[in-house]
Amino acid sequence: MRPITRRNALILGGVGAVGVGVGGTGLWMTQDASSPVPSQTGVGKEFTEPPELRSRNGALSVALEAAAGQVTVAGNTVTALSYNGGLPGPTLRVRAGDTLRVSLHNGLADPSNLHVHGLHVSPENNSDNVFVTVPAGDSFDYRYELPLNHPPGVYWYHPHQHGFVTDQVFGGLYGAIIVEDPTAIAVSRERLLVISDITVGSGGTIPAATAMEKMSGREGELVLVNGQLAPVMASRPGERERWRIVNACVSRYLRLRLDGQRLTLLGMDSGRFSSPRTVDEILMAPGNRADLLVMGAAGTSLLRTRHYDRGSSAGMMGRGPERPAGDITLATLTVAGESAAAAAAVPRQALPRDLRAATVTARRELVFAMGTGGMGGGMMSPTINGRTFDPSRVDETVQFGSVEEWLLTNTSTLDHPMHLHVWPMQIVEEGGRVVDTAIWQDVVNIPARGTTRVRIAFDDFSGRTVYHCHILDHEDAGMMGIIQAQ
Ligand code: C2O
Ligand code: CU
Ligand code: CU
Fold first, then answer.
1. Residue 265 has what DSSP assignment?
2. Distance, CA 252 to ligand 2 centroid (Å)?
3. Hey, how many other C-beta atoms are within 10 angstroms of the C-beta on 136?
4. Which end of the chain has the smaller Cβ count within 10 Å, N or C?
């Protein structure tokens, strides 16, 4: 085994790396650690997906092992972190009403835990409790009971140990959770695209983030789809594919296009829109998911992410890190061959709940700011309502069963994607504009020097959990608060 460099040790905590392989055929196997650093250009291998684990008779039991090890990215051996040796970890497929059990073993050198992002489940005990810490070398058994009314859609899992989240997610710890539809949508095939970014330094290690990168939110130099660089997909004209996309990047916004194909967005994050929407482009903040239909039109289309200006920390203190402004090609879809028979109409979606007519029992404002102090050395410190995270303080107490309206205000020059656990948010106003349809998300963007207004129904589960910025460097720096529903 090759020695782990000091830089690498910052991410891995100096753990002895265990050899792991990435499942799937789309990866080259190269053992040469001195091979050149992979780059985003070029066309990769055939698209692959992580292994899938499905619930049966209302239950799914999974063992997840978080550990450091070697994975292959575009022919280069990279020392990364992974669940069960794969990047991403296995996909968990469940249904509303199911019980999901996850036995997590922490094989890392640092504490970790597990969060099921977006699932509407209890935040207490051994359910989605982010206050659980699983020390290095220990295990913990999680048990999540999905209510019968759980919205279908794509969700995901990742570590949530405060202070370690960004290094662990950036290192490779993430996987998808799919909650099946009550009535299946007929498609030629389904694909899962977990998009993440990573930086691979010389020697195949992930360099530690600089203070400046942490302030703006680190972005990896490579953007991967299911751990692959620029994979290639094929379909036939007229085929309808369903793409479930997860933005697992720790700070990067995705502005996705697939020019030449007809795209219909069924929903984002939690549940569906009232009717599917034809779109050219999908903006996904870190943590967001998209549920998309792609109608195959003959030709070759590039899945690209265009530059999104999420602001910078420049103007507060010097210049932020440079972020390249060009498009990035994430994958290639080639549609060729005999035309497929026309797909059946998309079944009607269950109408989403609409809180615009609900009685609001309380209003609050959360102010997201890059204040001074806290991080020391003149660095800016991300805060919510002037405070950084304190695990012993409850910041907001809400009444179980009530509906509240929250005004999310951003006074800084960077966007902050705000995430609330357990209860999804209905966006009612964005940048001063009223939203005239029911849109439910669990990550909502608050633009730089802007506002977003949401309504939240604190239904089904009481207990204590968190809300935070999903630029995970900001979360680790304390842009997180505790909410208690009682
Ligand atoms: Cu995706 Cu609190 O996290
Ligand atoms: Cu979450
Ligand atoms: Cu932020």
1. E
2. 16
3. 14
4. N
Quickly list DSSP for 343-357. Answer: PPPPPPPPPPP-GGG
Confidence of residue 378 (pLDDT cuts 50, 70, 90): low
Token pair 């999908």 in the structure block, residue: 282
Query: Helices H, strands E: what count in the chain?
Result: 4, 33
269 CA to centre of ligand 2 in angstroms: 11
Question: What is the pTM (predicted TM-score) of this model?
Answer: 0.91
**For 477, which DSSP code?**
T
User: What's the distance, Cα to Cα, between the start and end of the chain in Å?
Assistant: 52
Between residues 352 and 24, the one the model is more confident about: 352
* pLDDT tens figures, 398-435: 999 999 999 999 999 999 999 999 999 999 999 889 99
- What would the DSSP string read from start to end of 18-74? EE----SSSS-----TTSPPP-S-S---B-----EEE-BTTEEEEEEEEEEEEEEET
Q: Is residue 468 lining ligand 1, measured as CB closer than 6 Å?
A: yes
Which SS3 state, helix, strand or coil, does residue 383 take? strand
Domains and CATH numbers, the chain: 10-179 (2.60.40.420), 189-335 (2.60.40.420), 362-485 (2.60.40.420)
pLDDT tens digits, 118-152: 999 999 999 999 999 999 999 999 999 999 999 99
| DSSP 8-state secondary structure symbol assigned to residue 75 | T
